[in-house]
Amino acid sequence: MLPNLSVEDLIEQIKSNKVSPEEVTNHFVKKTALIDPKIKSCISTAFVKGKDGILNGIPFMVKDNMEVIGTKTTCASKILENYVSPYTATAVQKLLDAGGTVIAKTNMDEFAMGASTEYSSFFTTKNPWDLQRVPGGSSGGSASAVASGMVPFALGSDTGGSIRQPASFCGIVGYKPTYGLVSRYGLVAFASSLDQIGPLTKNVRDAGLIGNILIGKDPKDSTTVEKQIDLLKNIENSIEGFKMAIPKEFTKGLSDAVKNVLFDAIDNFKKMGVKVDEVSIPSLKYAVAVYYIIAPAEASSNLSRYDGIRYGLSIDGESVDDIYTKTKDEGFGREVKRRIMLGTFTLSATYYDAYFDKAQKVRSKIVDELKQIFNSYDAIIGPTTPGVAFKIGQLSSPLEYYLQDIYTIPANLAGSPAVSLPMGSINGLPIGLQIMSKRFEDEKVLRIGRNYEMIRGKFPLPEVVA
Ligand code: GLN
Fold this sequence. Notes:
37% helix; 2 domains; alpha/beta; 15 helices; binds glutamine
């Protein structure tokens, strides 16, 4: 038996011949067959084996908005229900080239729009800590699969928090790299100025290990840059003397329960010789509003390609317009339609200045104010989410869902790196600590996270794994 080992531990076990790569893969395939019927993390199973490399025998899962050749990429949408990928996303390919094996595609909110997987057109994934609750979203399938031990790591995508928020709800680590570090080639575009791919892992060292494999310039994604970054090299160096900022805007409406966990985290940082200051970043209060103008605007443009002619579902009609209308009406779910309508409205000639243009200006203002803070501080910290995982069906209005990402959205607007790792628990449910820094300071973000993890000690596992 392989207890709930990290990627690094598994590599070690394989290297020292304690277990063979095949045994490792088989173990996780079996475990998935056993646990997935309870949690429902996977949309489809796959078996795509990579080359020889450091990840030999290590299986992983991929959010179903990334292409893996020969597998279905549905984006949890009826419009792509039967779409088979003709190629493989660069991020996935890099992991395959490093020896990894894809064993499943994971559930998500349709087109990554949502915070719970309740907006998947197929089914809702369950939180391994409490099956009545959501795993978070939109990468909820990937997060729940890692938390319940089906795979040692998985890939997610993060446009406004979709890696970090489910990581927070599931008690694992979710890392959104700096915008431009990881290629999005083969990631189905949601909002192109915000989307990033990143890993969901059991601990911060694994986030560094997988991150190192993912990072790199890709000629197929012109937003990527060449940077010499080694996320593991100094990851356990002391952070004594570091300065952290907690924005007032992040703590204002917090419940006492979350505040208590946060205060414990701050105490831990102080024990490590870190200075923690409360600061004010006034423009942060507009982050959610800005995001819900910019993201739907970009989405309305990106999603126009699903027209019933080029990809996926096609409903016949009397004219081309009729085909478009019927296909989109049948193929897209309510939330996706809402975003497309919001986006086309704010981009329309009459309203462009009042909404889209203004949102871009406020985005710049947020970026400027964050830059100012990063001139004097190593990182901004706070809770990843306003609370713990909510119950399936508990939230009713779109706004309640939108507010889930109140703390995660700023990193996307600024293109900053950010990581969420378990901060503590409230009534047996995990909640994440978010660490965010300047663009390309990914090493620092993970180093702070790893130091916090070391002082915090091992985080428990949900019972479903035990
Ligand atoms: N919850 C946010 C939204 O619905 C973020 C989603 C994401 O990061 N993909 O847009």
